[in-house]
Design a protein that fits this description.
about 200 residues, alpha/beta, Glutaredoxin, 5-stranded mixed β-sheet, two-stranded antiparallel ribbon, 5 helices, about 20% strand
């Protein structure tokens, strides 16, 4: 009877850890306000990572768009919870200047990632991550870790571990309301809509 109690306790603890994140460092998940103030945002480091077709993808390719950069792995339980959300967010907001970019951190690379992406119908770009990229983003220690990046290329929010879906939706919507620095109209630039 005592061993059954210990097994139940161990299983309960495992479920709590699984729901919080794939590593033990999940304390920072969704702390503080959903978005950092603009003056507190740091520039998101650029990277050059390959997608499933072997094309090199740079974060800078998405300048002017709101980007959800998600570090994940196929073996990560909380990642599997978030991915359907991200598929829906990509579908709903792609035409509004939003993109999801998934950075797969699987040790065996495309061998695991390609079948997973096909099976789950992932509709956004996936690239294969590495330790160097993880380090440029502060040493990603927990999966999932997601960075919400504004149109200027700055990190507006960081979610470590499984964050509430509403935090993503609210953050994305707020950032989509902000015009791109490249397309905002200035008084000294003619408005192309008023030409002839």
């Amino acid at each position: 009877m005592a061993s059954l109690s210990r097994i139940s306790t161990a299983l309960g603890l495992a479920l709590v850890l699984l729901s919080a994140g794939c590593t033990s460092d999940h304390r920072r998940a969704s702390e503080g306000p959903p978005l950092k103030a603009e003056k507190e945002r740091k520039h998101a480091p650029d990277f050059a990572l390959k997608d499933a077709d072997g094309r090199v993808v740079h974060l800078s390719d998405y300048r002017g768009k709101v980007v959800l950069l998600d570090f994940w792995a196929t073996w990560c339980g909380p990642c599997k919870i978030e991915i359907p959300w991200f598929i829906d967010m990509q579908r709903r907001n792609k035409d509004r200047g939003f993109e999801v970019v998934g950075v797969a951190m699987d040790d065996d690379g495309w061998e695991s990632v390609k079948p997973f992406v096909a099976e789950h119908g992932v509709n956004y770009r996936i690239v294969l991550g590495d330790d160097a990229t993880s380090q440029t983003y502060g040493g990603v220690e927990a999966l999932p870790t997601s960075f919400l990046i504004d149109r200027a290329g700055n990190i507006a929010a960081v979610h470590v571990g499984l964050a509430p879906k509403k935090d993503f939706i609210d953050g994305i919507e707020a950032l989509l309301q902000t015009p791109s620095p490249d397309t905002s109209l200035r008084s000294d630039v003619p408005d192309p809509r008023r030409a002839n």
